[in-house]
Write a structure and sequence with these properties.
The complex is a heterodimer of chains A (90) and B (454).
Chain A (H helix, E strand, L loop, with lengths): L2 E9 L4 H11 L3 E10 L2 E9 L7 H15 L1 E7 L1 H7 L2
Antiparallel strand pairs in A: 1-3, 1-4, 2-3
Chain B lengths: L3 H12 L5 E8 L9 H15 L3 H12 L3 E8 L2 H4 L7 H18 L3 E8 L6 H15 L4 E9 L3 E3 H17 L11 E5 L20 E7 L2 H9 L6 H30 L3 E5 L12 H8 L9 H19 L17 H8 L5 H7 L6 E8 L4 H18 L3 E8 L7 E3 L6 E3 L9 H4 L4 E2 L9
Helix pairs in contact in B: 2-5, 3-9, 5-6, 6-7, 7-14, 8-9, 8-10, 9-11
The chains are: A alpha+beta (90), B alpha/beta (454).
Organism (chain A): Lacrimispora xylanolytica
Family (chain A): Belongs to the UPF0237 family.
Protein name (chain A): UPF0237 protein OW255_11595
Chain lengths: 90, 454
């Protein structure tokens, strides 16, 4: 499985999750896990997604998600899972 | 499954604490480029480098994108050119043509430095070695990206004092040749003792003759991450402090290991080593000096500095070796003056001097690094400094080096601006007493007694 971590950080507003998830669904990216909190008005979300069936290559998807983030005033970041698993799992 | 805390910790390291992979360095053997015809050698070298390394920069950028981690430098190291050009070069000027070819190849593939304009003369110099050494001032003055290193001693062979004496003059000549740009040529020239074959860091990287045809070596960084981590251990005892450094070093190195494996896979070139060095940059918060100050020193250079550095260096290694299958290169904290804001400040306020820096090099890699000294320093004094550093390396069975910049036209108290990652440095005073008679004795310092292990 080709797992990617998407993190979204920024000022909370209506429809952040909806926008991101709609985009992912349109591009056949499957969401495996979501956690989300609001700390002092700041929206903080982490998603684990599976990109096996993705309609677009990683780079393009990352750029487009970043673009969506810019539109709604949040920072969206895509990273392949390994950078986290390597660092935090022995 | 990963949790949000872990993901945020990693991203905080990258975004706020300046964690990066300092360099992916591709080592390329040029032994198969040897020829007795100079034009043929140049052509073969250019062709080999531009073929083997053609995808290095693009793959580096791809990996940066995939993991959202900056890979600051993509570089190349090659077989010491004194060996490659030995049969074709009949005078120092011939070697300069090879330097220009290396520069052209580096620009073509888009790497910012190419190392290996080198000679290994720890015991003696061949004619070719001497031609190469004598060509260094011109070679570094007429190229932008070529880096040069000379190994003048080792624990096994002792110190080649003829080469040390010559290098004092060469460093001065290089400063003179590049005086319009604050003697910047000297920033690309390192004199080593016990030089490693697989060092990915410039200016001392070369691809040793014991290495494969091509190899990927990676240098990690992350002083800012270590500094932030040990803030949580303020006031705690050494056990807690060491444990914190070790765990952080493990995490940093794992990122390096991941990047190295990915680069190796995508370029289809074997993975060599991870270099565990903590490499600072002039950016605030990316400083080894700040770590030492966080450990408990008012300023770097204060009594206790050497002990704090020894501790830091050792814990970084202990954490790092578990994170990577192969560790090599220099692997230690770097203490360059101009590339570390905390070091610059300490020198400027008089807390840190050349002698204390020398003491610090006994317990860490790599040596007297990026230190600006007055342009009127005699060649024999520079040779004396090189001899002292080499002796530390030879006796302690470790790598030591000297990258010192006698800035033409500048004296103590003035500042030199090198730009970019090379930073800026205050010109430091050098001991005024002469060592000319010592340096000019000629010959070799024999290998130390503990090198006879067979």
């Amino acid at each position: 499985m080709n797992k990617t971590i998407i993190t979204v950080v920024g000022k909370d507003t209506v429809g952040i999750i909806a926008k991101i998830c709609t985009y992912l669904a349109d591009n056949r990216v499957n969401i495996l896990d979501i956690s989300q909190t609001i700390v002092q008005g700041y929206f903080n979300m982490m998603m684990i997604v599976d990109m096996d069936e993705s309609a677009k290559p990683f780079g393009e998807l990352a750029d487009e998600l970043e673009g969506i983030g810019d539109e709604i005033g949040v920072k969206v970041k895509c990273q392949r899972e390994e950078i986290f698993t390597k660092m935090h799992r022995i | 499954m990963l949790n949000m805390f872990e993901v945020n910790e990693t991203n905080k390291m990258i975004e706020q604490e300046l964690l990066d992979v300092r360099t992916i360095t591709m080592g390329i053997s040029l032994l198969d480029c040897c020829d007795s015809d100079l034009n043929a050698v140049n052509e073969k070298i250019y062709r080999k480098i531009t073929t083997v390394a053609k995808d290095l920069v693009s793959v580096g950028k791809e990996i940066e994108k995939d993991f959202a981690i900056p890979i600051v430098n993509k570089r190349i190291s090659v077989t010491p050119i004194a060996l490659v050009g030995g049969s074709a070069c009949k005078k120092p000027e011939d070697f300069v043509t090879i330097a220009k070819t290396l520069d052209r190849a580096a620009k073509e593939v888009g790497v910012n430095f190419i190392g290996g304009y080198s000679a290994l003369v720890s015991k003696g110099m061949t004619t070719a070695d001497e031609y190469l050494i004598r060509s260094i001032p011109k070679a570094l003055a007429c190229t932008d990206r070529v880096c040069s290193s000379i190994n003048v001693g080792s624990t096994k062979t002792g110190i080649n004092m003829d080469a040390v004496a010559l290098m004092g003059k060469i460093v001065l000549e290089t400063a003179e040749e590049t005086k319009e740009i604050d003697s910047l040529g000297c920033a690309k020239l390192v004199v080593f003792c016990n030089a490693p074959d697989d060092n990915p860091f410039m200016a001392g990287a070369f691809h040793g003759v014991t290495e494969a045809d091509a190899i990927i070596n990676v240098g990690v960084s992350g002083p800012g991450v270590v500094k932030t981590a040990i803030e949580s251990a303020r006031g705690q005892d050494f056990e807690v402090l060491c444990e914190t450094i070790k765990k952080t070093a493990f995490k940093i190195t794992r990122v390096g290991q991941l990047v190295a494996q990915e680069a190796s896979k995508r370029l289809n070139i074997p993975f060599g080593i991870i270099d565990l060095s903590l490499a600072p940059t002039p950016a605030v918060g990316d400083s080894v000096a700040e770590i030492l100050e966080e450990i408990g020193l008012e300023r770097v250079g204060a009594p206790g500095t050497t002990a704090a550095l020894a501790l830091l260096n050792d814990q970084v290694k202990k954490g790092g070796v578990m994170a990577s299958s192969y560790v090599g290169g220099l692997s230690g904290a770097f203490i360059p003056v101009s590339e570390d804001q905390g070091m610059i400040d300490a020198v400027a306020m008089g807390a840190l001097n050349l002698e204390k820096l020398e003491a610090m090099t006994c317990v860490c890699s790599v040596g007297l690094d990026m230190i600006a000294i007055p342009g009127d320093t005699p060649a024999s004094t520079i040779s004396g400094i090189i001899a002292d550093e080499s002796a530390i390396g030879m006796i302690n069975q470790k790598t030591t080096a000297v990258r010192i910049i006698p800035v033409v036209g500048k004296s103590v108290g003035e500042t030199v601006e090198f730009g970019g990652l090379l930073g800026y440095a205050p010109v430091m005073p050098v001991n005024k007493y002469s060592c000319e008679k010592f340096v000019n004795r000629g010959g070799r310092i024999p290998a130390p007694i503990h090198s006879f292990k067979n």
